[in-house]
């Protein structure tokens, strides 16, 4: 993790995303802009989380734990997503692990010096409610799509969500878990789409060859949103 080296960079990012408009008091002294590299932990489940994190660039993945200790992928998150709100309300709440799938940029708030102000700020609380609603709707739409459409269409939408420069470089086990299909089924999907010259296998994953076809398959899911 690295923080923005200059206040000018932080000011530019805050202005670009109108972040300060979500608060009725001066939040600037408690804010920093951070970047995380691919594979880097943003939040660990052992953290005593005293940060709010607003994702403005990149893709991050959130995990959950089962009683047997197994870790499962909950979802992938893209801008704009807010993390750390439950831990703001419940100081001793154990956070879910969050990992950078690609290079990620966040606007972070150090809540140690402003927690009381945040909890009394109606403007900020409305922002939290709005973000929670949007993230909940997105999660529900994902599960609706997984049950209502063929896995081929859902995989195409997944490709567009997670590709970076046309390359999908994600663990196949995590993609299968995200799509709620078996690893074997995913391998069959990839092989079929490679035979159709929609995708090609490369050392780091799969690359999109036929963008029009991938968009066409994914659009069947998005048309009713």
UniProtKB/TrEMBL annotation:
Annotated Cyclic nucleotide-binding domain residues: 36-110
PROSITE patterns: CNMP_BINDING_3
Domain of life: Bacteria
Pfam families: cNMP_binding
UniProt-listed SUPFAM superfamilies: cAMP-binding domain-like (SSF51206), Winged helix' DNA-binding domain (SSF46785)
Name of the protein in question: Crp family transcriptional regulator
Organism: Hungatella hathewayi
């Amino acid at each position: 993790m690295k923080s923005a080296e200059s206040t000018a960079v932080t000011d530019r990012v805050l202005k670009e995303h109108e972040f300060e408009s979500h608060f009725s008091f001066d939040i600037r002294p408690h804010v920093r802009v951070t970047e995380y590299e691919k594979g880097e932990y943003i939040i660990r489940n052992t953290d005593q989380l005293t940060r709010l994190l607003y994702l403005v660039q990149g893709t991050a993945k959130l995990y959950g734990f089962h009683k047997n200790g197994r870790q499962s992928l909950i979802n992938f998150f893209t801008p704009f997503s807010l993390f750390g709100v439950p831990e703001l309300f419940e100081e001793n709440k154990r956070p879910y692990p969050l990992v950078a799938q690609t290079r990620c940029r966040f606007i972070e708030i150090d809540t140690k010096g402003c927690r009381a102000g945040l909890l009394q700020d109606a403007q900020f609380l409305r922002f939290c409610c709005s973000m929670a609603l949007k993230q909940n709707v997105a999660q529900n739409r994902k599960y609706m799509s997984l049950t209502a459409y063929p896995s081929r269409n859902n995989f195409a939408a997944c490709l567009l969500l997670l590709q970076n420069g046309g390359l999908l470089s994600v663990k196949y086990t995590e993609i299968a878990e995200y799509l709620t299909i078996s690893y074997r089924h995913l391998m069959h999907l990839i092989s079929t789409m490679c035979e159709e010259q929609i995708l090609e296998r490369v050392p780091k994953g799969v690359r999109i060859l036929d963008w029009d076809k991938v968009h066409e398959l994914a659009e069947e899911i998005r048309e009713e949103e």
